[in-house]
Amino acid sequence: MNSTPASTVCVPTLRRKVAWRILPLVVVLYVVSYLDRANVAFAKLRMGQALGFSEEVFGFGIGVFFVGYLFLEIPGALLVERWSARKWFARILITWGVISAAMAFVRTPAQFYWARFLLGMAEAGFFPGIIVYFSHWFVQSDRSRALSWLLVSVPFSLALGAPVSSLLLDVQSLGLAGWQWLFIVEGLPAVLLGFLVLACFTDRPRNAHWLSQAERDHLENELAAEAAAKETVLKLSVWQALRLPAVWLLALGVMIGNSGGYAMNFWLPTTVKNLSKGSDKMTLLYSGIYYAFGILSVLVSGYSADRTGDRKWHAAGGMMTTGFFLLCSTIPGQPFGTQMIWLCLTALAAFFWIAPFWTLPSLTLTASAAAAATGLINMGANLAGYLGNHATGWLRSHQFSESQCLQFLAACFIAGGFLLSFLRLPNKSPRP
């Protein structure tokens, strides 16, 4: 690789240029991604009654998405590292958009399960692939902040999806109910974005015609120097990385903690409706407020993690604090307004740990090893989606109270954070 004198490149300008080119489209993609996996939580308010689905049917159907997701986790991350992010993401978007829209036409529990399973398979590899893709564009000191902009898409998509879904639930046209239009209208944009990705995405800095040659060389050299430093400190193969205790501790910690996180996101509208005794529209409004607090939390956590150099305690502490606030929401005798305050504080903590956590695999592992480890860890994160949602559906179907369900989710957060506290990973120095 050619060496370019640092004086020929304005590094802050280069970093801003990369951020403005990469992040907006990635954020839009992830907004659509998360909305298409989670909109079943909004549709459930009408879909369950229309089709006669029980809480346990929804719990299994929501969870089986993550079983399908497991199949391409590690291969998806490796394909981004070794092949083409642009082509892989385009494939993912087009197939998941078609399947998400097809959810409008399920009629039986079996059809619901298969549609959710295939949606998980279609989307598999997207999130770990994005994490690997960021390692091709952002140096370590910028990666938490970049990742926080990606992860702000989660609460943003849900905060946006709540009022939009509220409007769509009342649509009656062409013989289709509102919950069916919800799936169609929110699914098809992914197909269009798939073709946009083919036209606009750039795989690596060396392919970026929107950068000058000096900027391409500087960025490639900077990223290569970081990779070489990791090779010097710890050179691992993919299979060696997958045998590291730290990797399995991360996978187990996020699996247990995220069992609470995914279930909290998917069952929040049901929880709010049961606690408030309000209408569907009021339920979705309160749900949107919860997710709006999450937007603030993600942005603050990414900035804080980069400034302090700490990722481990941002992740572990965030998980355990989430559990504490969630437990407070179950104190008997509280009016709904007080419970909603506790839930908003829960949102601040629940979205705080995510961005710092996902930078942990790349701190000490080499590129291919980090890609494989990220895929394995995300398998644990998505297995949590099955376990947490299926368990929550089972609890509700067996007449456990709303408080007992929330206490189960709180225990998941606290246990996951406790496990992460045992990690022995070096903290990075604060960014100057």
Short description:
The chain is mainly α. It is built from 19 helices and no strands.
Q: Please mark out the parts with pLDDT under 50 across 5 or more consecutive residues, or reply none.
A: 1-6, 427-432
Shape: globular
Task: Using the coordinates shown, work out and report the CATH topology.
Answer: Growth Hormone, Chain: A
The residue-averaged pLDDT reads 83
Quaternary organisation: single chain
The CATH H-level superfamily is MFS general substrate transporter like domains
Question: Radius of gyration, Cα only, in angstroms?
Answer: 21 Å
How large is the count of helical segments? 19
What's the CATH class, please?
Mainly Alpha
H/E series: HHHHHHHHHHHHHHHHHHH
* Domain module tally: 1
Helix content bin: over 70%
Largest beta sheet, briefly? none
Give the name of the CATH architecture: Up-down Bundle
Strand content: under 5%
Terminus-to-terminus distance: 28 Å
Q: Count of DSSP E strands?
A: 0
SS content category: mainly alpha
Which short descriptors sum up this protein?
Growth Hormone, Chain: A, 19 helices, globular, 0% strand, 432 residues, 78% helix
Please characterize this protein's 3D structure.
The structure is a single chain. By secondary structure, this protein is mostly helical. It has a single domain, classed as Up-down Bundle (Growth Hormone, Chain: A). Helix content is 78%, strand content 0%. It contains 19 helices and no strands. Helix 14 packs parallel to helix 16. It is globular and about 65 Å long.
